[in-house]
Amino acid sequence: EDPRESFRAMLYAVSATLDDSRTQVALDKWNALRSESGGEGLGFLEALGQVLDAIFQPYGADASGTSLAQVRSITGPSPGALNAADLLVMVEDESSNNQLPVFVACCDAPAAVIPTVFSVYVRRRRLPEPSEILFCTSATTAEELELLLRRFLGARRHRRADHIFCIADLHKLSYTQQCLLVDMLRSRLHEYGTDSASTLLLVAGKPRQLAVNALSSQAVEIPPLEPEELRRACEAAFRLYGADTRAVASVINGGGKTQHIQAQVAARQARGEALAYAKVMLREPSSEASLVSALLGARRLSGDGRG
Fold first, then answer.
1. Does residue 154 sit in the same domain as residue 247?
2. For residue 134, what are the β-bridge partners?
3. How far is CA 229 from CA 82, 209, 225, in A?
4. Number of domains observed in the structure of the chain
5. In this structure, are strands 91-93 and 133-135 parallel, antiparallel, or unpaired?
6. I need a labelling partner for 211 at 20 to 30 A (CA). Which of 102, 242, 251, 286 fits?
7. Is residue 100 part of a domain?
8. What's one GO MF term for it (predicted)?
């Protein structure tokens, strides 16, 4: 297995956008620092921190001059679009006169969670980064929840003051997990405050969830953009960042999707394009980890071509 590809795959868990030249320099630096640190202990962690900082150094600045991490920009909602206003406005806590950058939303149905979450980022004219969103499942761990909360609370120290950290599909967490999440959030807010925090958004797809009720003072209505607006944003995202990503759909099973895809690949190969075909199975039990592993495996099998 190519160590460079493994290193890049690890980095995609942090950011969806990587600079190839920086990544290669960082990999060389990582190999040297890892040897010096002995591969364990505090020295090992410090070496890893230096390498990640070399890759994700500032890419720009906001109006106040604060350096920002790189994001993937896209076009925002079109003029006159419905629900185009950014409703994640800081809430004033009258009892303590503090602003709490935490928002809670409840969708009408589970299927509305993804459009609602995606709309939040489209209104900000960018795509979410992998480290910003956690879609909950029955297998979500307390560690995953706490890691996202810590990213939210320390975002400004790491050039991510403009990020929106999101925990979506809250309804898939058990009662016990939701209790734990609320307790962790309150505890970490009390311990660290919000001076270095960005914005946290919690989204549920069903009503009467414990986490939603417990944080009802932070509730906000954030209806999704119209489907056409989201479709336009997806098209822009695929065009700019999707490495020629295309979707083929059919209203019936056995409608010829695979044959159509293979014909398109064959036609492009005939034109001399270095394109390979690999089939990756995606089923209901598939997880994010299994999908990434399957995609990496398909890329290795396809050689130098791009599947």
1. no
2. 167
3. 9, 29, 6
4. 3
5. unpaired
6. 286
7. yes
8. ubiquitin-protein transferase activity
Identify whether 238 is part of a domain.
no
Distance CA 264, CA 82 (A): 37
- Six token digits for residue 39: 């591969």
pLDDT of 61: 54
Residue 149 belongs to what domain range? 91-231
Q: How many CB atoms lie within 10 A of CB 255?
A: 12
Mean pLDDT, residues 254-269 taken together = 89
Task: With respect to residue 71, please indicate whether it lies within any of the assigned structural domains.
Answer: no
Check pLDDT > 90 for residue 97: no
The answer on 291 and 198 residing in a single domain is: no
Tokens in use for 277? Answer: 């075909």
pLDDT surpasses 80 at 107: yes
C-alpha span between 185 and 182 (Å, rounded): 5
Could you tell me if 114 and 37 lie in one domain? no
CATH number for position 171:
3.40.50
- Mean pLDDT on 224-240: 90
Calculate the average pLDDT of the chain. Answer: 82
Q: What is the pLDDT of residue 228?
A: 93
* Residues 206, 276 within the same domain: no
Dist CA 140 CA 132 (whole Å): 15
* Residue 133 domain-assigned (yes or no): yes
Residue 305 has pLDDT above 60, yes or no: no
- Taking the C-alpha atoms of residue 206 and residue 107, their distance in angstroms, rounded to an integer, is 6
| Structure tokens belonging to residue 279 | 């089939």
Q: What phi and psi, each to the nearest 5 degrees, are found at residue 268? A: -75, -35
